[in-house]
């Protein structure tokens, strides 16, 4: 071994000779010279030269007026009114006058009388006569009438579900006593000034029917102690 190393020129020569010996002893691990791939030329790694031609930009095309989408037709609100083709009840209020009312049926209530609209029928209503004075409110400024003023509902069955009360030109609260009596009759109550009460009655009576909604209206010209004359 030592003589072989000296023949190869020392340890470095021995390592080189051993490597060459392994290359030829194991041909499967050696790369034949004929199949060795040449190293690529340094020039082939160069990046392609940028074109000196400036970038090309495309100007936005102008749209003609024909390309503009047409606006949808306006919405016809009459088509959305589900009650538009429903006839108004004959007892719907067309006009509120100073001393009465004009109804859709052509009936007019005048002379400062109120109107009681129940189950498709119209009645002149004078609830102040029950009190004996020309008053429909109490000292607290609340709309208050005795039970006898609503006596018609005692004789009616079935009764309406809702009673709309119009208390005159301006709204006022309903007294607890009157509210309680109407509740005992099995009716809900809504209190408004007479103009809004008439409009509310017209809407609800058309939608739900005159058997479900009733109205008790005081003329818009009503004045406490004087009436609407």
TrEMBL record:
Database matches in Gene3D superfamilies: MTH938-like
Alphabetical list of InterPro entries matching this protein: MTH938-like_sf, NDUFAF3/AAMDC
Species of origin: Purpureocillium lilacinum (Paecilomyces lilacinus)
Protein's UniProt name: NADH dehydrogenase [ubiquinone] 1 alpha subcomplex assembly factor 3
SUPFAM superfamilies found in the cross-reference section: MTH938-like
Domain of life: Eukaryota
Region (Disordered): 36-85
